Amino acid sequence: MFTIVGTxxxxxxxxxxxxxxxxxxxxxxxxxxxxxxxPPETPSxxxxxxxxxxxxxxxxxxxxxxxxxxxxxxxxxxxxxxERPVTSIDTEPPASSGGGQGSGASGSSGGGSxxxxxxxxxxxxxxxxxxxxxxxxEWFVREEAPLEETPLLDIAANVTKNIPIxxxxxxxxxxxxxxxxxxxxxxxxxxxxxxxxxxxAAAVATTSAVGFTGFxxxxxxxVTQPLALLDRRRRKAYGTVYNVGTKLPVDLATVRLLxxxxxxxxxxxxxxxxxxxxxxAPPGAYQIEVQKxxxxxxxxxxxxxxxxxxxxxxxxxxxxxxxxxxxAKNIPLEPKEDSRTNSKIIAAAGRLRLQxxxxxxxxxxxxxxxxxxxxWEQVGALALQLALTVIFSRIANKRKPKGWGxxxxxxxxxxxxxxxxxxxxxxxxxxxxxxxxASGRYAFLVGQNRYFVTAEGAGHQAARTETVDFSRSKxxxxxxxxxxxxxxxxx
Length: 491
Hints:
alpha+beta; five-stranded antiparallel beta sheet; 7 helices
């Protein structure tokens, strides 16, 4: 506004100009304008003079339908630190750009995302972590089931809850087992170190005691025994392979039926504990081959007559004829003489006791290992330990006697680690040797024959018993005579 100087009259005020109104085209349809919805006003609480109320600003957003409402945005939280090292298996793959809803900082429900570390950095697995994720230890300690559960101990606790002492023992055992199952170090050590080590020690001990030949013979026995049982049920007859010195049956001897030329194997059998075998073959001529560690076939000695003690219908070599389709001859084996020195016999006895300790300890440890770590690996180890124990008991362990002979010195005290030998009287041949235990005990199982026993101990004079005649005995028996050793007097 300007004032004209000198006149004192202000210029007239012009009315505001309005924009020209556009005339709508009648040919173009006009879309109705939707009304603008405003949220209802929330009645405010009465304001007191003491506490003024500050009303929040009114929301200007348009409400969205509940079915299309997006989930609230949550702030990513750092992953808790695991007990074992994080490998590439623990790292989720990064989300793709087209992963659907929730991609970006809000996470994804359909496609995985890499969670940031507490410092805000995304961890990328290294090649070493990729290799470690597929290592043997990772396979052994994989998660399969909650180890802290102890259903059997829980049942035992409920059963023994009214027995004070037993209840306390069961509850203490359950707590110890739970603590061991939740300890990652104990689980890894038990699965990766202890269980394989004990199973390997038992396998080595059993193999060294029975030998690979013993394993092979026992495996062949398991394969051929069903056929032998079927043959015996059909014919109710069998032949026996026996020790010509002790007249006892020979267990796990391999018997082969050959053709008349001895070049082709027709059938194979392995004897049982009673030395039994049987062949069913078409009528004709055959040869028989027998193998057993510590024995020789055909026997070296000459067997007069058609019988040898309780055994008749003998086969001592040459051809055999199957006239009725059955071959069931009694076959004598010549035992090799035990010519070992006393020191070697004592050392072998000590090794055998140590080997049996390793093998017998195995099943108990396998059960304890399974209680601590109930995994299939421990079940397999237990089955292996039981199989080794059965094989060792069958081949290497001797039959327990009903009575014992005792070797004593002149003062009546037992002599431990005395070497005792049983000798066949007719051939003066050593059939078996033993070492007395801490109580000076020994015993030999023999059959129908004549024997005598000798004993030698460090610092004592050798002694022998009188001849013992078992030639009229119907059943095997034990030689268990008390022997007194005189002390060597030094000059």
